[in-house]
Structure formats: C-alpha cells, structure tokens
Amino acid sequence: MDIVNEILEKEQKKAEKYKPITVEKHLDVEYDLGTLLVYDTNDLDSKLLDSNSNRDEYLQSLSRDNTQLLLNKIWELPTERIDEAIVVRLPQPTTVLPRSKPVPKPKPLTKWQEFAKAKGITKQKKDKLKWDEQLQKWVPLYGFRKAAAEKEKDWLIEVPQHMDPMMDMYEKKAGEKSEKVAKNELQRLKNIARSRKVKIPRVGLPITSDKASATQLSTAAVVAKASTASLGKFQDKLPKEQEARGKGVHELIPGKERKRRAPVPTPQVEKQNNLNLIDKILSKRPKIDMEKAVSQHIHKEQTQRSEEKKSMKPAKGKRKVKGNNATNFSAKKPKAGKGQRNMNKKTPGRKRR
Amino acid sequence: MKVLSEDRTKKLFEKLTKYIGVNVKLLIDRPDGTYCFREKKDRVYYISERLLQLAQTVKPDHLISAGTCFGKFTKTNKFRLHITALTYIAPYANYKIWVKPSAEQQFLYGHHVIKSGLGRITENTPKHQGVVINTMSDIPIGFGVAARSTTECRHADPLATIAFHQADIGEYIRSEDTLV
C-alpha cells in the first residue's frame, strides 16, 4: 500500500504542477485549425484588466486556456506517425488572410493597345496556314517554311516601268523589310520608355522633304528664322506670316524658353486689362475710312439730287410729250379703238401680240 | 476654363468690335457684376465671375460648358462667332439689316441675304461691316457681313448679295451637336 500511496502522492504533485487540460468557457470559442487560430468571443474581465498588479497574470492565464483549447482540438484530429514523430494533418484554413505583398500592377499598355482599346478594336485571329494559289500548297503565316515559300514564290520580280532598270528588286525588298523591323524595334523601345516615364528626344523633321506636311514646313521655316546669332530678332517678317504653333513646336525654336503659365488675374485686374486692350484696338482703327467717306459722299450727292428733283416739280399739264419715238415703248398694251380711226383704211382688227 | 492668352483676347475683341464697335466695353464693364471671357477646348465662354467660381468646383474633365459660348478658335487660330453670342450682340449692334418676311426662311436655311429680300438697312453701313440681321418685327435672327454699303445697295440688282451669312438661329437645329 505504501507504493500506491507514493504513486498517488507523486501524481498529485504532478497535477499541482500542471494545470488541468479541461477549460471552462462561458461561450464556445471559434476555431480555425488550418491557421492554428482560436477566436475567443467571451468578455474580458474589465476589473482585472484595469488593475495594474493582476493584468499580466490575467492575460497570461487567458492565453494559456485558449491555447489549451486549441491543442485539445488538434489532438482530436487523426494522428499519423512519421519517422517516430506524431503528426497531424491540418484541415484547410477558413479565415481569409490579407496578402502580404501589394497587388501587382497591370502591365502598361503599348501605344497601339491603348489606341485599340479606345477605338474598340479587337484582335482577329488569323489562321497559321494559308492556301497559296500560286504555289498550290499551304504556306505558314510566319516562321518555319515561310521564308522558303517566299523564296519560291519570288523567283522573279518585275522591275516597274518608272524605275531604274538596273535596280536590284531583291535588295529593295530586303531593305524595306529591314526598315520595317527597325521601325518596330524603335516603337518597342519607345513603349518601354513611355511605360517607365523616361524622357526621349523628339524626332525632328523628316529627312526627305518630299513628304513634309505644311505644318512641318512652317515649323522648319520658323526654326530656321530663329537660328541666327540674335535668335531671329532682326529678321524681316512677311506680310501675313504666322508663327508655327502646335505640340512641341515651341521647344524646337531656339531662344524660346518654356513660359510658365501666368497666374489667373483677379477679376478687377482682368477687367482693367481687357478695357485697355479694347481701347488699343478701337484707337487703332483708321480715323478716316476711305470707303465710308466715299459712300457718304455718294449718299450726300444722291439726297441732294433727289431734293432738287422734288423742288423742280414740273407744272401740271405741261408734261413733255415724248411721242413718235421708235424707242419709246409704253408698258401698256396698245388697244384698238383708242386712237384715231380712219374708216376708209382697211385694217384687219387690232394688232395681236 | 482657361484665361485667354493676350493674343487670343485681342482676336476676340477685334471680332466683336466688327459687330458692336465701342459697345464691347459694355460687355466687360457691367453694373450687375464682373463678367469675363474664358476658354475651354478652344471655345470661348462669356461668364460671370460668380458663376465661374461655382463652375470651378466641377472637375475640368466633367465640365462641358459654363456661361455663354461666344464662338471658337479654329485650327488656324482665327476666331469664329457662334449664333449663341447673338443674345449679347443684337442689343448693341450699330448696324442692322431687316429682311422681308418672305426672305426670312431663306436666311434661316443658311443663305445670304439678297437684295430682293432686303427690307431695311441702317443708314451709312460701310462695306464689310458686321451686321445683325433682324426680321421686320425687330427680332434678331442672325448676323452676317455687309457685302455692299448702303449706297451701293440702292443700285444693286435684285439678286445681288447684300449681306454674307455668318450665323443664324436655324443653326440651333441644323448644327445642334457641334454648336457648344
């Protein structure tokens, strides 16, 4: 019996050392074993929390209890033994955790992609193989066997009439192709620069002048004019010359710094500025307008003449008779029976018109 | 809403003086508050300071127009008056042309005023003067440019153009979508 007591005593001592594995909770805690999470919805003891001496102890005991509950739950799961170690397969976590890394930014669109998006252009899928009538076989759109097919097709290239007969058309075609590739590469690099917000120098005027537009030519003229030692200050101006305008033109002209936009003036200042400007415009108009003066003169003459006519009204009944004139036609239709009639004269009625 | 550059302000006032002469001052120097010209997308708006301040609370992208559209600057940087400016031009116009009722419709369809449709014309109208076109009952229906001076009109033949059409109130219907 001594041994039994000893053992019991030992066990009791052990039990004292370790706290019990059962925990009493007013409300059941929520578990998410996948993330090893216990969520305790019970109220905290505010009295204990406020007291300085017991706060740590209280929190420690609370976390121990909850940890105990979690471990109890884990032990309920089916266990396995792998390499002398007891392991548990955790279920799928139910709590959604926020991601640790920022959301990746969408890839910046190329200029064409942006344009296509704005215009609603969608890419149309093309077949990889296309039937070639001339070769009577399927030719790939690009890639393997395309070049061979092309070579077979273009065994002879006609030289157009207007071109130099000694021109190597194959060389020309290869040149066009390489130019296209170079253009594409340039656009690719431009797109990269755009996405990284790197400033790239403007491409100036085209080398060949036969394709220059009116705006390009006017820009070139303005730039050339300003390209003197005195920045074009003493250059004469054409009568109706206009300064080239447009995006990026200003930066090309030598000596023209980027102007900072003037601050918005106060209403009073703006009003005064506008009034001054109007005064300037009104004063600029010619004092003697030749056209106006001439027309006024004509008007005066006309009124004078009409008044003269009115004052020189002819007396009644003294109207000048302008008869017997071949050119004198009256508006009225001549009627029979109004004039003098000679009965002896045989006339076939009135003259019909 | 941008403040007009000096160059553009000048162009605007030059155009307005063609129609209303010295009276342009009255548009700016008003007793009922300060009014100013503002520009948005090359269009010039005549707007009161109070309304402008309210308009500034709207995001520029969302603001289509504020105030009265007076006209627009063309791509070649010339100013073109719109019919919407008629309300402000008509009362101040120095030179007017009155058209006969029979010619009203012709004008409202965008044709020039011809001699046969001319009812009255202001005395001493010079050539190429901006004029407001009225009906015989004094309702302004548009504006144009005098093709002939008053004295020349007297001797013009019935089909001769008296005033070149610039804008008419028919545009409110005809070019509804491009006006503002």
From TrEMBL, chain A:
UniProt subcellular location: Nucleus
Domain of life: Eukaryota
Cited InterPro entries: Ribosom_reg (IPR007023)
Keyword Calcium: no
Keyword list, A-Z: Nucleus, Ribosome biogenesis
GO cellular component entries: nucleolus; preribosome, large subunit precursor
UniProt biased composition (Basic residues): 312-322, 332-353
Main location (coarse class): nucleus
Signal peptide residues on this chain, from the entry's feature table: none
Gene Ontology biological process terms from the UniProt entry: endonucleolytic cleavage in ITS1 to separate SSU-rRNA from 5.8S rRNA and LSU-rRNA from tricistronic rRNA transcript (SSU-rRNA, 5.8S rRNA, LSU-rRNA); ribosomal large subunit biogenesis
Region ranges (Disordered): 238-277, 290-353
Bias (Basic and acidic residues) ranges: 238-256, 290-311
Family as reported in the entry's similarity comment: Belongs to the RRS1 family.
Function per UniProt: Involved in ribosomal large subunit assembly.
Protein name from the UniProt record: Ribosome biogenesis regulatory protein
UniProtKB/TrEMBL annotation, chain B:
Gene3D superfamilies in UniProt: 3.10.450.220, PUA domain
Cellular compartments annotated: Nucleus, Nucleolus
GO molecular function, one term: RNA binding
Family classification: Belongs to the NIP7 family.
Lineage: superkingdom: Eukaryota
Domain PUA: 95-174
Principal location: nucleus
Function description: Required for proper 34S pre-rRNA processing and 60S ribosome subunit assembly.
GO CC entries: nucleolus
Protein name, per record: 60S ribosome subunit biogenesis protein NIP7 homolog
Biological processes annotated in GO: ribosome assembly
Transmembrane segments: none
Keywords: Nucleus, Ribosome biogenesis, RNA-binding
UniProt-listed Pfam families: pre-PUA_NIP7, UPF0113
Subunit relationships: Interacts with pre-ribosome complex.
